[in-house]
Design goal:
Blueprint: H1 20-34, E1 42-43, H2 46-53, H3 57-70, E2 73-76, E3 80-83, E4 130-131, H4 144-162, H5 172-186, E5 195-198, H6 200-212, E6 218-222, H7 227-235, E7 239-243, E8 245-246, E9 249-250, H8 252-261, E10 266-271, H9 285-298, E11 301-305, E12 330-335, E13 347-350, H10 353-366, H11 372-384, H12 386-412, E14 417-418, E15 427-432, H13 439-448, E16 451-452, E17 454-455, E18 468-472, H14 478-512
Parallel strand pairs: 4-16, 6-7, 6-10, 10-11, 11-12
Antiparallel strand pairs: 1-3, 2-3, 5-13, 8-9, 12-13, 14-15, 15-18, 17-18
């Protein structure tokens, strides 16, 4: 038997933390995978290995049991412990006294990936980073105690069915509660059979794309809009065409021209008509009627994303397009991510019952069902009125924060930013009116100071720069928003210093030229 050496140092390609027995098991498994320990090779006895590693013998026995359960080793009562004979022969790596350098990046897959543009993953923010991004609620306002009590009540009452499989459409009690909410507060007449519960509105968009679109289908989208929705629609193979957005919302006449001129039939249109994302404008009444009639005449679906219906601060909220739909053209998307918290991942889709059944059959393949415990608890809170009370409280808080951010922006950036307070939503769409200031450069300088600003380029279908920033007001209290404005001010000042430096260098060059 050749000398036995085992290192419990963490491998960069397979980091292990936790109980010592598990670290021992993983270290042995790595050596077997590398070919350092070969099939049928004997392993030290539990006492010997325990003494070698300075651990209790029971720890080694636990590691050996783990490896045996996974099929890496086998134990014969009279002969000892061996690497499994079923392990394929692997050429060992070279170990020349020094450990090989850890891999800097994960290896590429050993199979072909589809040739398409990958959507970049979002990254976590560094500690201390703030964001003025719009569309983010203050999760500290969530009635977590009431939610926790509702979850405990649901478990005590019916733990077995709740923890088992459920309907892909979502629990009937939640669909009924959402149908009542859509009918009562939003004017969207629906029964529980017309409602599909989803993991956020993003899943609803994805299911519609999977269920209704084929490669080459044309889908119209807002030229300034919500990029994750575009990604979901593109993933189905659809060809997206941007439609201009102005102070009255989507240009429906431009959409009609697209329908007339397009080489393929326009299959659908994705819109955010209540508080257009990102501009916050509301689709004008005449355009709403024109859009509904165009959809009926062209047999085109309207995917209406009403992502923040509850938060309207002046007058009554405009009712959704779906409330005026008499021909079954509108597929209505709602979400509780803004009402409660994004991490709960509860959205819903309202449409004709045959569509809901069709999309549920796709959802069953992809995700099977949602979180039944959470969804039953949320249904209870809706029936009890707890969520409605939370919305009323959050509206008051967000209205105060909207006014506060507006006042701070006016005071700090008079002559630099121009904006109107939106009638609803959770963000201000501000124009950078100082021609010496680039919105993109300002956002970059702010990020260097630990503040994320959303510039217009992130919402532009063509990816081009525009002199706008989207500034969220919902998630920060008074102290926090003052800190964010301070970082914005510092970032703007750094741009001014660089601009003065460029001006000085240009002036010096002109004086020194012949």
């Amino acid at each position: 038997m050749r000398p036995f050496v085992l290192s419990l140092d963490t491998d960069a390609t397979d980091p292990v933390s936790g109980p010592t027995f598990l670290r021992i098991a993983r270290a042995l498994a790595r050596d077997i995978q590398r070919g350092r320990l070969r099939a049928s090779e004997p392993l030290p006895g539990s006492r010997s290995l325990a003494q070698m590693l300075g651990v209790h013998r029971n720890t080694v026995l636990a590691a050996y049991r783990e490896l045996a359960a996974e099929g890496w080793i086998e134990t014969e009562e009279t002969r000892g412990t061996f690497v499994s004979a079923a392990i394929p022969v692997v050429a060992p790596r070279r170990f020349a006294g020094q450990p090989s350098a850890p891999l800097a990046v994960a290896p590429r897959p050993a199979y072909d990936l589809p040739d398409h543009r990958a959507t970049p993953h979002g990254s976590s923010l560094a500690p201390g980073t703030m964001t003025l991004g719009g569309g983010v609620p203050d999760v500290r306002l969530v009635p977590e105690a009431e939610l926790a009590r509702a979850m405990r009540r649901v478990l005590r009452r019916s733990a077995v069915p709740i923890l088992s499989y459920g309907d892909p459409e979502g629990p009937r009690v939640l669909r009924s509660a959402l149908a009542r909410m859509a009918s009562g507060a939003r004017g969207v007449v629906a029964s529980e059979d017309d409602v599909l519960v989803t993991r956020g509105s993003q899943m609803g968009i994805d299911l519609v794309a999977r269920g209704l679109l084929s490669p080459g289908d044309v889908v119209a989208v807002e030229a300034l809009g919500y990029r994750p929705a575009w990604d979901a629609l593109r993933a189905s193979g659809a060809r997206l065409v941007p439609i201009p957005v102005d102070g009255r919302g989507l240009d429906v006449d431009a959409l009609a021209r697209l329908c007339d001129e397009s080489e393929g039939r326009v299959r659908g249109v994705y819109v955010t008509p209540h508080h257009q994302l990102p501009t916050t404008v509301t689709l004008a009444p005449s355009r709403r009627l024109r859009l509904l009639e165009l959809a009926r005449a062209r047999r085109m679906f309207i995917l209406e994303d009403d992502y923040d219906h509850e938060f309207h601060y002046e007058g009554r909220p405009v009712l959704p397009l779906a409330s005026a739909d008499r021909h079954g053209s509108v597929i209505y998307l709602g979400t509780l991510s803004k009402v409660l918290a994004p991490g709960l991942r509860i959205g819903f889709l309202v449409g004709p019952a045959p569509l809901v059944a069709h999309l549920a059959s796709i959802r069953k393949i992809v995700d099977r069902q949602g979180d039944q415990l959470l969804e039953h608890a949320v249904a209870e809170l809706l029936d009890e009125g707890a969520i409605q009370r939370h919305v009323r409280r959050a509206k008051r808080v967000y209205a105060e924060r909207r006014a506060r951010l507006g006042a701070l922006l006016e005071r700090a950036f008079d002559g630099v930013l121009s904006f109107e307070l939106p009638s609803g939503g959770t963000a201000i769409w501000a124009r950078v009116v100082d021609r010496e200031v680039s919105a993109d450069a300002w956002a970059d300088a702010a990020r260097a100071r630990g503040l994320v600003l959303q510039n217009a380029r992130g919402f532009a279908f063509d990816g081009k720069s525009r002199p706008f920033l989207r500034l969220g007001f919902a998630q920060h209290d008074e102290r926090e928003v003052k800190e964010a404005i301070g970082r914005m001010t510092s970032a703007l000042a750094s741009l001014s210093v660089r601009a003065r430096g460029r001006t000085s260098r240009a002036s010096l060059a002109s004086r020194s030229s012949p």
